[in-house]
Design goal:
This protein has helices spanning about 15-25, 45-60, 105-120, 145-155, 160-165, 170-180, 210, 250-265, 305-310, 315-320, 340-355, 370-375, 400-420, and strands spanning about 65, 75, 85-90, 125, 130-135, 195-205, 215-220, 225-235, 235-240, 275, 280, 290, 290-300, 325-335, 340, 360-365, 380-385, 425. It is of the alpha+beta class and about 425 residues long. The strands form four sheets. Strands 1, 2, 3, 5, 6, 7, 15, 16 and 17 form a nine-stranded mixed sheet that branches. It starts with 16 loop residues before the first helix and ends with a strand.
Amino acid sequence: MTAPSANSNHASKYVSAGRLNRRLDVMARYGATEKRGVNRQALSAEDLQAQLQMVRWAAELELRPSTDPAGNLFIRYEGTDPALAPILTGSHLDSQPTGGRFDGVYGVLAALEAVEAIRDAGLRPQRSIEIVSWMNEEGSRFAPGMMGSRAYANPDGLADILSTTDADGVSVSSALEIVHKGLRDVPHRMLGGRPYAYIETHIEQGPELERQNTTIGVVSGIQGKRTFRVTISGEAAHAGTSCRAVRKDALMAAVRIIGALDQQFDDKADVVKFTVGRLTVEPNAPSVVPSAVTFSIDLRHPESAELTRLGDLVVPICEAQKGPCAVSVKELSTAMSVEFAHELRNCIRRAADQLKIAHLDILSAAGHDARYLGDVCPSAMIFVPSHQGITHNEAEFTSLQDLVDGARVLADVLCELTSQEASSCRAS
């Protein structure tokens, strides 16, 4: 990527707070919960309704929607030279079961608002801009997450993704077929591509920006993450008649294993992030010794070498604490720490400086689709504050002004990037 030139078009002046807020309100209706959150899990009926809403907004703006075999949704603002590699920008529409109104969806709607602002400014970029909503970023229904962006970056892995099933035994393939039927009028495209750049705007999901009274986070990178599924096989027995000395109690084995992992991964600096977020017990009956337990492990660290070392301890600890039961460990995903493109980060800083919006460099502790896009093109992220760092929670909140400022920065960044290796964002 060539070094960008200063942008004087200021598409950011045309970002509309009212329009962005209205669209956020509309999207919050799809999967709305009683506590003003959302439950819009990947490839659900609610997710389909959100995608259809994006298609309707695209039609109003004469933008071209398309979808791919991984269920990613694209909305294209055609540039004057369609042969040039496009700029991708967006995030995801799916949520956690008790998710907030901004996680993921803000990045998609900020991208739509930025594109509309560029149009309203009378600017026609030479490079096309594609707004994208990635399939199953959250990984709440189908694990692991970031399936759509991972398939985009590595199409050869699509078959494994499609065969993944949810807790009810529904496969990604089956759920995706229903979604594609609902989007029957949306053209299909090939999976993958080589964009010119990718920019993802997102709420921080942490407290640092708010703590430092700063609006824009220039994301330096994403800490690494390894996820595992541990399955313990024991033997069902009567809770009143079986002797504890001879039981093969899968739940007690799980308790020992989780306790040992927790002790191993405890560090005073609180850099290691270890989470067991899902645990299932069979037969899950009060008077029956558990015969099987399955639980998840989410392990994160900003240093790839340390993440590798810690993750490699999972299997031996499980084996050492299994007792009379059998244990199997499957690693679901491995993503080492990534650093975002310096030239794109400089572009974000320049845009924020020109708008006189405070910014700081920040590392993302949470995973995002930009992790995988970095494998195919220069990528970067823009963060806006999260009140008290609350996220994956119905109480999640970001002020409208911060949301608007993030979209303003994005609009000017997009306009600058689309004019690279071209004369300028030309007036239409």
